[in-house]
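Below is how a single chain appears once it has passed through the pipeline. First comes the sequence as given, then the structure the pipeline wrote out for it. We keep one example in the README because the format questions we get most often are answered faster by looking than by reading.
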Amino acid sequence: MSFSLGLLCRQCCHSILSPRPPLVREFSSTPILALRRTKKIPVLSKKALAAKARKRAAKARKHIYENEKMTLESAIDVIRAVEVAKANATYELVIKTAMSRGSIIPKGRIALHRETKARPEDRILVFAEGRQAEEAKSAGAHIVGGIELADGIISGKHHATTILCSTALIRTITPKLGRVLGPRGLMPSERRGTVTDDFAGYLRRLSGTTEWKGDKNGVIRMPIGKLHFPIEDVVKNVKQFVTAVKRVTGNQKDTEEKGKSKSVKPVNAITRVMLSSTQAPSIQISDI
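Resulting structure:
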């Protein structure tokens, strides 16, 4: 009996007040980032990115009028019906071209059959010296001078909507003004006809015309008439402007150029011609 009580009443080997060893949690010495499996994102090639963009565009929801086409006169009637409350609304013609890489942005001047609004005044700057400078002044140029005008253009002192240059000075001004005027579309070039020695003839052709220009995506926008214009005037303006764009983009050639080169492909193909206004939807024209 005493033996059993001794077993039950035996003292604890550790005192309550004695400190206990702290619990230590062992961590792995392997870095956490090394344990994680990072998924590498594949780098797509240009062809794969282009194919992906085409698939995304094909799946995108198209506009309700995407495949709707009308004749020009029918489109004018629809726009007139939508814009019945605004007699002074403006017709806008939108021409989309297939701009390829490295192609030139379409640009030109035109005198419409009936102008939509008053033409803005052009400010002409001419690089010329001697007798050519006197001819440019007498023809109506606003600013005429030599290479000294380059510093004023760079600093913003001289502002102009059109810049002409003689053939003798074009190589002198190109190193200074190429990077300044090139992105703005004002750099004189032989292709545009702004490098010339016949300043009087160029300024004579410039008077009475309106400039049009496409954007970097090849989209050309032009106010083509007012709603109160007769339908015949709007039709003439549209056909005249489309013909001018076709000539600049290479889709239509004059009779003289056809005899010289028969196998030349269009520079920028016209993909779509649309007519719209402020409130009316854009309607694709089928007979142009």
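Residues 231-249 form the longest helix (19 residues).

See the next section for the split statistics.
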